């Protein structure tokens, strides 16, 4: 099935400070034959991107202690080689201004928590297909 080929063997960076979220996201990605790299905060995310040029999409929680997701996305976008890297923001509250804030910070798309796996998989397909 062509849809699955889009995801297969792609590497996603998951940035989240909540282990439960990380576990469920990793399980979902591995189910689609994707690789997952984990960062528990913004600083770790920036280091992970340096170390792993194979990352083809980022799933970013916006609510994290220290450097939050918005600031992390801004930092990622400052790097020329990451200007086009797709970033999907995970927001706790699906407020209209929240969406604008995510896009403004550098997210390509966003999904609210609790994450609907099918919806997230659809977003991954859309952004990895480009």
Largest sheet: 5 strands, parallel
What is the molecular shape? globular
Rounded to the nearest angstrom, the distance between the terminal CA atoms is 18 Å
What is the SS-derived class? alpha/beta
Any idea of the CATH topology? Rossmann fold
CA-atom Rg in angstroms: 13 Å
Low-pLDDT sequence parts: none
- Percentage of residues in DSSP E strands: 15-25%
Number of domains: 1
Helical proportion, percent range: 40-55%
Q: List the helices and strands in order.
A: HEHEHEHEHEH
Biggest sheet strand order reads 2-1-3-4-5
CATH class: Alpha Beta
Description:
The chain has a single domain (2-129), classed as Response regulator (Rossmann fold). It is an alpha/beta fold. β1, α2 (19-31) and β2 form a beta-alpha-beta unit. Strands 2-1-3-4-5 form a five-stranded parallel beta sheet, with helices on both faces. The protein is built from six helices and five strands, in the order αβαβαβαβαβα. It is globular and about 35 Å long. 48% of the residues lie in helices and 20% in strands. It has helices at residues 2-7, 19-31, 42-51, 69-78, 96-105, 117-129, and strands at 11-15, 35-39, 55-61, 87-91, 109-112.
């Amino acid at each position: 099935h062509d849809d699955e080929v889009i995801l297969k063997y792609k590497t996603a960076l998951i940035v989240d400070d909540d282990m439960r979220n990380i576990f469920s996201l990793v399980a979902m990605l591995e189910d689609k034959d994707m690789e997952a790299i984990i960062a528990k905060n913004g600083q770790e995310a920036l280091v992970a991107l340096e170390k792993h040029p194979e990352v083809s999409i980022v799933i970013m929680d916006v609510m994290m202690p220290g450097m939050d997701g918005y600031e992390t996305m801004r930092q990622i976008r400052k790097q020329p080689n990451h200007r086009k890297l797709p970033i999907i923001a995970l927001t706790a509250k699906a407020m209209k201004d929240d969406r604008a804030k995510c896009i403004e910070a550098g997210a390509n798309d966003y999904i609210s928590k609790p994450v609907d796996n099918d919806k997230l998989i659809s977003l991954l397909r859309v952004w990895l297909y480009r």
